[in-house]
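4.2 Preliminary Data

To establish feasibility before requesting continued support, the project team ran the inverse folding procedure on a target of 421 residues. The structure was first converted into the token representation described in Section 3, and no sequence information of any kind was made available to the design step. The complete token record follows.
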């Protein structure tokens, strides 16, 4: 049988993970990424539940992840004067994680680990600075996909195209028809991530979290390169109209207008926000995005398939990285299991992933309102309750309630697939 030709679009988390596992089925994999180099910046992300299971199936990956952990020992919640309300720490048990993961790692570090796993594989080729210009499937969806590229990479036919290019996937719009915001379920929230040169928490190995009225949440942690990493969130109730439109409009205008939007939103928020906003304007690795969920009726159409956020972004659940890793593993495993019958492999992927996606997309009860209450009274109440449960040592029980599926073990029974390479 001829070697399966696969095009993977996106080289962040889902893309390199898919390339690694698909190459183990014997497929010839080309990975394209629209950025000119591998992106090594980004926020801290977690590996949980099925992500831990998949990680442990790859020799050396768990050790590599542990070596690059963020080294944050906990998250301390503070008030506007810096007063401490309580601290969350990791449980020490990868199978029952708290709000702070045992495997917290910066997105760029994990992307490099996954890229390096497959970079030297003779069946994997990475092409940076490239994206799809057009994509054509036969009307019966039963033949190769003809792909033309935007920046000079030769046009070619592929037996399978895998979209791994994020929640607002352009590739999904091409493969399914429509536009990039189709299938997006907003959660009325956005987040921004960047580094600053100043150390505003004075060497502390505990991250510091602060909430201001209006759904504004700020977290500061140590940056291994020096200074601090910063996460900012703008969180609004989901039962209101779309309140992220101004954020998206600013994002369309470019980085500087978006920074100004964020700075204006955080004006007068208190604690260290004034210092953070001033430093943000000079930050060289600023990144921001809307927090959304992606819900599609099907994960594939003919020879086109979605993996990771492009197909099932979970929003603020803490499971996005794990879902991406799991989807890549299951897709390759089911294709290998049904060698010679790609359609059956894609059906198997869809059938096995849908229950996992449904569970991991459940936003834990009140998680957003607890993280960022809208009013000063709500913040006071949240802080008082948090201080009480920290003092009474019932924090572990409370975290299990709020973490939902992101806190527990892998209960899905991922199969051990057989590989040929």
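Position-by-position output of the design step:
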């Amino acid at each position: 049988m001829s070697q399966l030709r696969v095009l993977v679009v996106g080289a962040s988390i889902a893309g390199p993970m898919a390339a690694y596992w698909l190459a183990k089925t014997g497929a010839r994999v080309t990975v394209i990424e629209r950025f000119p180099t591998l992106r090594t910046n980004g926020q801290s992300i977690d590996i949980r539940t099925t992500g831990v299971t998949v990680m442990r199936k790859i020799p050396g990956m768990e050790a590599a992840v542990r070596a690059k952990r963020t080294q944050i020992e906990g998250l301390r919640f503070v008030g506007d004067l810096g007063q401490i309300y309580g601290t969350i720490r990791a449980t020490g048990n990868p199978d029952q994680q708290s709000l702070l993961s045992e495997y917290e790692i910066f997105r760029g570090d994990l992307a490099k680990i996954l890229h390096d796993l497959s970079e030297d594989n003779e069946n994997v080729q990475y092409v940076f600075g490239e994206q799809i210009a057009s994509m054509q499937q036969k009307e019966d969806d039963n033949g190769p996909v003809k792909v033309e590229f935007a920046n000079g990479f030769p046009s070619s036919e592929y037996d399978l195209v895998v979209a791994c290019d994020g929640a607002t996937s352009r590739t999904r719009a091409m493969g399914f028809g429509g536009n990039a915001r189709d299938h997006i379920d907003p959660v009325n929230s956005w987040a921004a991530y960047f580094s600053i040169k100043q150390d505003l928490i004075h060497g502390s190995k505990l991250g510091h979290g602060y909430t201001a009225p209006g759904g504004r949440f700020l977290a500061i942690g140590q940056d291994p390169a020096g200074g601090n990493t910063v996460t900012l969130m703008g969180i609004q109730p989901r039962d209101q109209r779309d309140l992220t439109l101004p954020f998206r409009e600013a994002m369309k205008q470019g980085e500087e207008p978006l920074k100004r939007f964020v700075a204006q939103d955080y004006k007068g928020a208190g604690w260290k926000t004034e210092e953070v906003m001033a430093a943000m304007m000079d930050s060289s690795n600023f990144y921001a995005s809307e927090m959304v969920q992606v819900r599609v009726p099907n994960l594939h159409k003919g020879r086109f398939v979605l993996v990771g956020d492009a197909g099932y972004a979970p929003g603020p659940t803490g499971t996005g990285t794990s879902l991406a890793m799991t989807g890549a593993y299951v897709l390759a495993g089911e294709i290998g299991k049904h060698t010679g019958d790609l359609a059956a492999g894609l059906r198997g992927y869809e059938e096995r992933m849908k229950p996992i996606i449904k569970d991991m997309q459940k936003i834990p009860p009140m998680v957003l309102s607890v993280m960022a209450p809208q009013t000063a009274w709500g913040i006071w109440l949240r802080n008082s309750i948090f201080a009480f449960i920290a003092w009474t040592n019932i924090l572990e029980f409370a975290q299990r309630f709020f973490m939902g599926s992101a806190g527990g073990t892998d209960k899905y029974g991922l199969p051990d697939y057989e590989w040929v390479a």
